[in-house]
Amino acid sequence: MPGLLLDTLNGAPSAKVPLWLMRQAGRYLPEYRELRASKGGFLELAYDSEAACEVTLQPIDRFGFDGAILFSDILIVPHALGQKLEFLAGEGPKLSPRLVDATLESLAPAPERYEPIYETVRLCRKRLPEGVTMLGFAGSPWTVATYMVAGEGSRDQHEARALAYRDPAALQAIIDAIVEQTVTYLSGQIQAGAEAVQIFDSWAGSLAPDEFEKWVIAPNARIVTALAEMHPDIPVIGFPKGSGEKLPAYARETGVKAVGVDETLDPRWVARELPDGMPVQGNLDPLLLLAGSDELEKRVAAILEAFADRPHVFNLGHGIDRRTPIAHVERLIAAVRGWQG
User: Which of 14, 85, 96, 211 has a CB 3.0–4.6 Å from the CB of 79, allowing a cystine?
Assistant: First the structure.
């Protein structure tokens, strides 16, 4: 049985709204923290297929979400391309050598690093309850490139943005390599059992309009086209965080089946501007869920009402904050599932 989430991503109308949360498998859950402590570092956990599957299923077991998102990281692709990947306590991920100082040709690709991720998908697909959709994912080429160029995350992605202006051919080569690898990686996840995939573009909002067309829309369109040829029945969700008024162009030009919406956009505007009938996902502010104020239920209702006339997957505007109390998630679930549209 496809399940409510998969049906909604395929455009089927329903009186019920499916629900899952970005980063739902992670640090806000005590069972995750316990398992991670026993495994050591984040990367060791992500490459341990049995443990990663357990993490993926933890929020399904606890909350009964309609979708299970693969527990992994967007930086698996640069790791497979040959960069060294480390997750340092208090500092976040580090990649080396930085491609602002080195070339792609200097890297030694290691495609075998995808295999444990595929095995995680296979294990989860076997163990998921009937009707719960298995979601795979990858980072968008622009967002992944920002890490590969700078060797780490940054607030304004200045290293990659400067490279795009200074030497666009060099950045294009990096983007092209990521596009090729992302198609391979997402296709592998689909072959292993992913029923839909999401492309995360966490840093899309840092680009000027012309650069957005070049580094966000064009590469994602190539990925979506390639996946559609190989897996025509698999929905692709595009999530260009921070895209603002560029979201409708992204929705029209990339070919994604559904779009994720961050918390900065008015859902009523989104509902008006997106192509008719296109499924939408979002867009509760993760910090409102963290705060759990009296506004939580009001905002949930406002989002549900705004998207009532199109297929809608309820989600956050970005990943759940690690400090979010379990009780607030339970309130959210009750508000979504108790809504009478």
Answer: 85
Concerning whether 73 is annotated as a catalytic residue, the answer is: yes
User: pLDDT value at position 196?
Assistant: 98
Question: Is 66 marked active-site?
Answer: no
pTM of the model: 0.97
Please report the domains of the chain, with CATH numbers, ordered by start residue: 4-282+307-317 (3.20.20.210)
The CA dihedral of 298, 247, 189, 234, to the nearest 10 degrees, is 90
33 is catalytic: no
23 is annotated as an active-site residue: yes
Catalytic residue among 7, 23, 114, 299: 23
What pLDDT sits at residue 1?
64
Check if 147 is active-site.
yes
The amino acid at 253? E
**pLDDT (tens digit, 9 = 90+) per residue, 299-321?**
999 999 999 999 999 999 999 99
Residues 259 and 239 sit within 8 Å (Cβ to Cβ): yes
The one catalytic residue among 28, 47, 114, 147 = 147
Q: Kindly name the residue from 32, 36, 222, 310 that is annotated as catalytic.
A: 36
Residue in this structure with the two tokens 């998969």, named with its chain if needed: 6
Phi, psi of 237 (to 5 degrees): -95, 125
